[in-house]
Amino acid sequence: MNPEQAKTVAEFLTADFEYEIQATMRVLQAVPAGKQDYKPDAKSKTGLGLVRHLALEDAWLLNSIADGVFATPPDDSDACGIMSGADGAARYQETVPAALNRVRAMSGEQLVKVIDLLGMIQMPGVNMLSMAVKHSVHHRGQLSSYLRAMGGSVPGIYGPSADTQQGAAA
Fold this sequence. Notes:
Elements: H1 3-29, H2 47-67, H3 85-104, H4 108-112, E1 114-117, E2 121-124, H5 125-146
Antiparallel strand pairs: 1-2
Helix pairs in contact: 1-3, 1-5, 2-3, 2-5
C-alpha cells in the first residue's frame, strides 16, 4: 500500500472508530455498580477487568500507533483508578478521542511504516489501526454479554437491544 492509499484507508478507519466510541461509552456506562466482579468462567476477565481493558488499552493502542512504537501496556490494576463502569467511561471519553485525533493527523508515510507490537506482530500503522478497531469492538462485545448476568441492561449498539426496544420485557 502506498502512502496516499494508507491515508485514505486511515481516514475511513478513524471515522469508523469514532462511530464506535459512542456504543462503547453506552456499554461502559451500563455496567451496574457493585457487580463489576462478575465473570462467566474462571478463565474470563471480570467485568471490571474488561472495563479497564477498554478504557486503557484503546487509548494505548491508538497512541502507540501515533508514536510509531509500542511501549509497555498500561497497568490495569486497582492503581489505575478505574473502579467502576462510570470511571471507565470517564477515562475513555477523556483519552480515546484525543488519541484518535493523533492518529488522524498522521501522514501517509507514517501510516505505512511497520510497527512492532511487542515482538508479537509487525505490520504497517494503518493495519494496526484496523486491528485497534477490531480490538475495541471485540472487548466491548465481551462486556456487553456480561451485562444481563450482572443485573444490568444491554444498551443499543448497532440498533436497539431487547432492553431498549419499546415495551421490552424486564
